Amino acid sequence: MRKYSVFAIAREAMRGHKGWPEQWSSPEPKKSYDVIIVGAGGHGLGTAYYLAKEHGITNVAVLEKGWLGGGNTGRNTTIIRSNYLYDESAGIYDHSVKLWDGLSQDLNYNVMYSPRGVMMLAHNVHDVQVFKRHIHANRLNGVDNEWLTPEEAKAYCPPLNISREARYPVMGAALQRRGGTARHDAVAWGYARAAAARGVDIIQNCEVTDINRGPDGAVTGVETTRGTIGAKKVGVVAAGHSSVLMQMAGVQVPLESYPLQALVSEPVKPVFPCVVMSNTVHAYISQSDKGELVIGAGTDQYTSYSQTGGLHIIQHTLDAICEMFPIFTRMKMLRSWGGIVDVTPDRSPILAKTPVSGLYVNCGWGTGGFKATPGSAHVFAHTVARDEPHPVNAPFTLERFRNGRLIDEAAAAAVAH
Amino acid sequence: MAQPFRIATAGRLGKADPVRFTFDGKSFEGLHGDTLASALLANGVHLVGRSFKYHRPRGMVSAGAEEPNALVGVHRDAARRAPNVRATVQEIHEGLNAVSQNRWPSLSFDVGALNDLASPFFSAGFYYKTFMWPKAAWERVYEPFIRRAAGLGEAPDRPDPDCYANRFAHCDVLVIGGGAAGLSAALAAANAGARVILADEQAETGGALRYETGAMIDGMPGWNWAQAVTADLAARDNVRLLTRTTGFGYYAQNMVGLVERLTDHLVSPATDQPRERLWQVRAKRVVLATGAIERHMVFPDNDRPGIMLASAARTYLNHFGVTVGRNVAIYTAGDSAWQAALDLKRSGVSIAAIVDCRPDPQGPHVEEARRLGIECLTGHAVTGTGGRLRVSSIKVRPVSGGAERTIACDALLTSSGWTPAVHLFSQSRGKLAFDAETQRFLPGNAVQELVSVGACAGNIDLGETVAEALKAGHEAAGGVARKLPKLAADSTERWSGGMLGAGEGAGAESTAKAFVDFQNDVTAKDIRQAVREGMRSIEHVKRFTTTGMATDQGKTSNMHGLAIAAEMLDRPIPEVGLTTFRAPYTPVTFGALVGHGKGRLFEPVRRTPMHDWAEAHGAVFEDVGQWKRAWYFPQAGEDMHAAVARECRTVRQSAGIFDATTLGKIEVVGPDAARFMELMYTNPWQKLGVGRCRYGVMLREDGFIYDDGVVGRLAEDRFHVTTTTGGAPRVLNHMEDYLQTEFPDLKVYLTSTSEQWAVIAVQGPKSRDIIAPLVEGIDLSDDAMPHMSVREGMICGVPTRLFRMSFTGERGFEINVPADYGRAVWEAVWAEGEKHGACAYGTETMHVLRAEKGFIIVGQETDGTVTPHDAGLSWAIGKKKTDFVGMRGLARPDLVAPGRKQLVGLRTRDPKTVLEEGAQIVADPDAPVPVPMLGHVTSSYWSENCGHSIALALVAGGHERMGETLYVPMPEGAITVEVTSTVFFDEKGARTNG
Amino acid sequence: MLLIHCPYCEEGRPELEFRHAGEAHIARPENMAELSDEDFERFFFIRSNPKGIVYERWRHIHGCARFFNAARDTVSDRFLTTYKAGEPKPDLDGEGK
């Protein structure tokens, strides 16, 4: 791997940038691998990278039915935070935030992790109680999260409307200063380049059509649109398509896949300094380095693999955005799109071994998987390499739906009385 | 001279009124009917903006919505500022104030243009490779710098005073595009009797007929025909004609989003006139007649102001009467651009040369050009341009190689052919098919009820287009075949030829800047670099270079980018892929999507019948769901703490009156009502006597508490169920779900009565005395009406369901009266209450009083992970029941495991310390991070009645910890607490009968 | 926004009138008390989540308020049919996509 640096750029500038090597190659699949990762999104590519880097397992292929980074990695609103309530969640998301900090240097790829702060707005007494509960729990878990008054919130994000006359006035906010955003494509590309440099084969346009198992039931490899590929271990990291893939191995998972939409505005000069989320009015917004307002909408109510959703969902989101930020009414929506998010009953992910020997699954990240990318990949690589979970992901089992030991972040933000 | 580039004999604005407007503070004159672009061009102004990355000077490229360069800010007043407005679309009006963007200090001298000098460093994706050292510098130095340099216009800085509207519409046939094809389709559909909606993005219909002067339809020049048909359609009852209206999004099941621009072209719109209107049209059939978009040629320095599309120059000349230069050159790979030269020449404009890279183009236009004495350089290419703020010359050489020659010019028109506008077709999820011969993506099989006609379907012949569109409109309307209408249509013009990708001088070895995407400054070499770096999918190329991601979404550039990538990869274009077309077709104002849904109409406000009374009595309100609830009633000089303390004291000393209307109410009726209740709630109901009440607990199937409330049995077959305020709709849905789908044999009816009843709670020792004078027909004595009973009778002359119940621990009543009488009864109760020194109290006092008694609030003590056992409600589970929703879930291993978090009371060692709700509880306050946590404080208040603070908490194994000392760590130090019972006041519960 | 045909009202109405209610044809076991943990998990948590035809429940909540079933292709979001609660799962082999 040729190192990226300002000097390398200067050198290339002299020759019209014709000397840059491929960031990753596009090899033909080998007959077999030690590990196959299904799904070349950030989590899957990161898993391959950490398998090679931390566990010395380099005979690895990442199979991708489309183009790498083309699923939810390239479709999300790139919010990063770790101020979750439960110890288990705070553990995995904060593991991730620690890896975000330094990821550019680790990968030698500028993923533009930008800790500009994530501010979550409280609009009623119940929100205040819930956020305070988070703040206290976070502090004792070593996760930064602080309470802001409406005036402090406005100082942190000047476009915010804190009028008492608003339909749902802002009663305060929880701010995680280390939260922020990163450049989603760069995350996928950076992991792909670094993994490929360590010998990982990234095979795009290669759809897995079946998971093969031997007489003892253990995984032996996969069938793909580019032929049979053997593997000792298979890790499924396929987001919205996880149900489909796991069913190939006869494993039924508690997932449903929903459309989730997002949109960007036309680019404007810097006007919005941080990330703001409001669960009560359903709005998520930040401004990209390019100047676009990046806005996350809610899910549609029905399951779908169509990667599209209804216009009314976007309308509702913009209602909320313009309610909180009335200066944005004259801004224009430039582009909208949809992804497929896989949602578990307790809104927490599954990163675990499965009942099938040699088969591992990393799924169920719902609407918030991007922030977890490095942490998820790191502990999932551990799980695959050692055939046992890392302490950080040990609670995120499949069995919790049987024994009831849920990690219910959704319930923790329960509906107001 | 005013408007020196206006040609009196050309165009259609004729003797239109002059209009004065300003651009960057300078005053100009245009004509009514001009766009900002045509008016600026009439004044010889090409330079209108700076590019995104290199800040290169840029002028208008197009005359329409595909414009990549000419973006300006339009400032109607201080609050009405719109960034990134396309000058080619914005119509001028008297006083229009436009400003250029992305430049400092001025448009003609922009410091940011230094980026252009440094451009060798700023290649595609350079920022992924640097700015990483030192680590902290990204966030402190590099990123803020990049952010300031990026962006285009300035966002508005104050709320938008304009309003926006929203309409839903249904029709038989929706036609998008009002050119020859769209008008023909709409005409045929309307003639066949269909309800038709026709939408066109321009101020006037006509489409390409605006500039295509050689077209004849139905014996008329094309433009005249278009206006005649439009007038005809507009007069019909079954046609809705929408101009300035863009079809921007194609959604499931033939729902199309349109946005209509209503006031941006007006001098002084009425304040109540919507600025834009969103239409959501559900059409039985859609006819797409969206035309085609001309592409520029890709060659070195092809971006200078004055270099524009040939069709744009024709539009400016033939429609607006404006020439884009005095000495105009043409560079093309197709036939249509020749016509621009002919039109200009006939209007007296000098043509510097026509350069066509094809070796031997043929046709009447070629012959005509030669006849007019225009220098025709076929088999030649333009390999460079000169000029700084305006093109001044071009370099031309034979394609086969040879000497380069410089030709002076003040404008250069280019065309590399036409890209069918298949955006909406693709959004409809129809698959596109690549036609290798013409190098175009065309609509393949439709998957929704739609048909594409005319140029967007690849048709380049006017006669065929009109015939095909008439047929499509006729058939979409269900017209019979033999009545298919016909119209004579023909054009002298030709649209064939064209090329994709980089032209001469911009090949693989070139280091020149040959722009593919003008706005984002993406050049042919950037695309090649992306491929070289391993980007093999067009989606990767797009994201790496940002080609096609600017505000024009690559309308003129995407096919070039794709072709260059395909050539680099040595693969056919369809294998490299086509980026997905996503809504919207052109950017849509947030306001239009929001419509009326802002401010007071963002979400409805629910108010109880007593709301105004509470407001008049000084209540402070809190939001609970959509409800406004009275929170507390401060008297003069009182803060919240003082008001709540007084209210709490008063209730327990005499009485308080509370508006409980927001509680959900459901009437459960039928012979199987009790059986149904047994299934829905943990409690037993069969033996509950008529006239008695019971506190019910509802679980989800997984065993966690879902809702609670007091239920009264009014008759053997009738229950009056109450739910939490926020839970009313979901509880009804939950009940209906089970009733309709799991227990359909039960004879039960469910009716929401939440809005039917107003509820006045009267609580306190004096409560009976207060209501007694008002009640008729109910014996209020303890024997006749004990705690937890319900009676029907009259109060203040209106029917009531009177509950004897208490959420305060005091003797109490809840008076249900028909909502319309709520205010009157409230006032009567209030008048009686005043005689006894009663107060009105709000939700905060209600919370404190119930916490003193250890009563839970679902959603505060519970959070969806709490079982009845955890909440100390095991007594509410019918022990003999064989089934209820949640029974099996409750038995799962983790729900019966030891160490679960259980509801307890907490008392602070210092009685004055009030814990913070949400604070965590630990056994060892000195433990290092991460500190093991045992639970959290769910409710915490100062209890005026107890004389100390009280708190409820969920604590691991809490029921076994009575008397234990635990700690609540706060940033400023740990607070010592003792675990207690949840009941802090009147432990024996004597007061409910007191 | 989907257009949904309510089999009770016998009308196609916009999605805003309806509430999605999860996968269809998952009957609540009659012998709830005897269910094993595995069976309870299967009943309450496991969903087929197919890429293709899904059988799902909708409620015409702002209309007739009835629950009914639908067969829909989750790839195209096209409804194949809607039918009343309690009616058997229609045989749609060979349809869809």
Task: Describe the model.
- The complex is a heterotrimer of chains A (417), B (994) and C (97).
- Chain A has helices at residues 6-14, 42-55, 87-100, 103-107, 125-140, 150-156, 184-197, 242-248, 311-324, 373-386, 400-403, 409-412, and strands at residues 32-38, 60-63, 79-80, 118-122, 146-148, 172-176, 180-181, 201-203, 208-213, 219-224, 227-236, 256-265, 275-278, 283-287, 293-299, 332-343, 350-353, 359-363.
- Chain A has 417 residues and is an alpha/beta fold.
- In chain A, the strands form three sheets. In chain A, strands 1, 2, 8, 9, 10, 11, 17 and 18 form an eight-stranded mixed beta sheet that branches. An eight-stranded mixed beta sheet of chain A has the order 5-6-4-13-14-15-12-16. In chain A, strands 3-7 form a two-stranded antiparallel ribbon.
- Chain B folds into seven domains: 1-159, Ubiquitin-like (UB roll), CATH 3.10.20; 164-292 and 420-491, FAD/NAD(P)-binding domain (3-Layer(bba) Sandwich), CATH 3.50.50.60; 296-416, FAD/NAD(P)-binding domain; 500-569, Arc Repressor Mutant, subunit A (Orthogonal Bundle); 611-655, no CATH class; 664-753, Alpha-Beta Plaits (2-Layer Sandwich); 853-874 and 893-993, Beta Barrel (Elongation Factor Tu (Ef-tu), domain 3), CATH 2.40.30.110.
- The radius of gyration of chain B is 38 Å and the shape is elongated.
- Chain C is mainly beta and 97 residues long.
- Chain C has one domain: 2-Layer Sandwich (Folate-binding fold).
- Chain C has one helix at 37-44, and strands at 3-6, 11-14, 19-23, 53-59, 67-73, 79-84.
- In chain C, the strands form two sheets. Chain C has a four-stranded antiparallel beta sheet with strand order 3-4-5-6, with no helix packed on it.
- The mean pLDDT of chain C is 93.
- Chains in contact: A-B, A-C, B-C.
- The interface between A and C is medium-sized, with 23 and 27 residues.
Measured by DSSP, the beta-strand proportion of chain B falls in 25-35%
What is the residue-mean pLDDT of chain B, rounded to a whole number? 96
Q: Report the sheet with the most strands of chain C, covering strand number, pairing sense and barrel closure.
A: 4 strands, antiparallel
Rough shape of chain B? elongated
The CATH architecture of the largest domain in chain B can be given as 3-Layer(bba) Sandwich
* Name given to the CATH architecture of chain C: 2-Layer Sandwich
- Within the CATH hierarchy, at the fold level, what is the topology of chain C? Folate-binding fold
Rg from alpha-carbon coordinates of chain C: 15 Å
Question: What is the arithmetic mean of pLDDT of chain C?
Answer: 93
Task: Report the oligomer.
Answer: heterotrimer
The number of domains of chain C: 1
Total helices of chain B: the number is 24
Give the number of helices of chain C: 1
Poorly predicted spans of chain B: none
The domain tally of chain B reads 7
Give the termini separation of chain B: 97 Å
Total DSSP E strands of chain C: 6
Structural class of chain B: alpha+beta
Number of strands of chain B: 52
